[in-house]
Prior knowledge:
Largest sheet: 6 strands, antiparallel
Helix content: 25-40%
Number of helices: 15
Strand order of the largest sheet: 16-15-14-13-12-17
Amino acid sequence: MRRPITLFLCVLVCLAFTATAFAQMRRIPIKRSTKSLRVLKPVTKGDLGSQQAFSKFLQSKKVPSSTAAKDLAAFKRLPGDMQKLVVESSVPAALAPAQATMKPVIARKYWMRIDPNRLVLVAFPRISSFYPPDGAKGEVALAIGRNFRSNTKIYFNNSLTTTYPITFWGTTLSTIIGFRVPSSGVSNGSSYPVYAKNGTVKGNTKSFMVVAPRGYRGKYGWKVSNSGGPTIPWAVYRNYFGASAVEFPDGTHRPAAESWYHTRYKGVGGGGNCYGMSLSSLRVKHWNLTGLLHASWFVANREFNVWWYDTNRNNDPVWQTVLEMQGNQVAEPQHTLLWDRINNQSANAAWTMAKTICSQYKPHGCVMAVTRPGAGHAVVPYRVGPDGPTRQFIMYDNNNPYRTTETGGPDPTIGTNNRTANTFSWGSYNKVGIYDLPELLVAPSLPAEAIGGGMGLASQSSYLSVAKPARVNQITDELGNVFYVNGRPNTGRKKLPEHVALHAVQQQELHDGHPSPRHPLHGDPVRPEGPRRRPLGLWAQLQADRPGRQLGQREARAGEPVQHDAPEPEAHLHRQPDGATQLPAPAPECDCRRRRRDRAHRE
């Protein structure tokens, strides 16, 4: 009798295995293309609700209407926060490996449980990672792995927790399952074991850290706080404006572009990089990396969210990206937009604009500039409070980054708008301007002074300053015109072009009452400064071949070539009572020199 019983059990086991395998396969649409499911991009939220967004996602994946109705019905049974998480992660790059095939996976290892009536074949459930990788008390998360079923349960800290199977293509996903972090019995900053069970079969254990509620700052704000410096590297400058705009083909620097780099651009974050931190956080949040110097680095080192990127605030790719965006505020047309908006936008208009932008998704997001006398700062408003007499801007302040063990809630920084008085207040800041992300990402260009214009001369003029004891052997302007040939002034037939004005230039740049003249948005107070002077034009200390001598300077007249006089005795700059640098009046010419010059002009 033993032999027939043994044979019967073997046959029964084989039948159970076969039935289970075929049952799994029948649940998969035969004509479904797994290729179209390999890369699931984030859904566009816009002003759609989570259910509408998920429905649109199903349509984009060409799920049949009857199957999509089942998926949507199952989706609607999920709580609101789980719906939002599924929409947010449907399916980001972080889940792509687990989602290579969106179908039940038959594990290599099986567990058998024999009961009096039947044999049950159970696959071994496995958790490989979590999305997000940590979470706050009471929040939801996704476990990524394999062999999850409709009856799978998640155990957190060895206790059963609320579990949410996820349905797609009419069947329960075997690679993703949702769960809720317990609200009690756990502490912020501590890790706890998490595992799945298919019936009585327990899977592997993974650690999950409980943290303070992240909110916007803990996801899309930088991990470090705002800090001044360092100097923006030339490589960032060259990449942002384009190599041809700041360098000659041989790699040497264009004089006007280099002068502007040293006097205006490279130190724009010296007092703080709040504007750069705000703008760069939005760009990385939306994965808008086009044109950034370190775009390929971010692609190769993609993190779950902005907060997960580390930086030493020196010259690593993350901080150089912050610096690159800090320099955006002095580029054109961004610089003009920044000052116009913060000086002319009312507080009520700013709140309304922030409300409109915050209700949108890609590629929108906004930077908010705030000022007070002598200082400016930039933040990211990500939500506004309800409309009423007093309205709120809820914002990510880079001076207050998220901490995993912090207390006080996820939204600690709030500015207010008094609708009746049309005023703004946040601490001592009382002026506000809102800027939509797309308008800050318009192709930047160098201002006129960085390409040789903006100083009262033709836009193609060239400027150079040389101080003792430097020597000038040859100078070629940005258009290829030669100033000196073999160390001597160009007096031949191919004289200097008439548009080149070789005279000393002095011009003051007034600030028109702007609160921060040198770096308007950096987060720290700026010491009051007097009128800032741009560099002098072709300065009075262009050195000739012999030290201690300088070249005479003349202005080209219409129809005349420019002629360099013989070296004059050295002239010294005089300091005027108002502090402005003036050039002395030219020394009287001798008759012989005047006659030679007039004859050369007639020729």
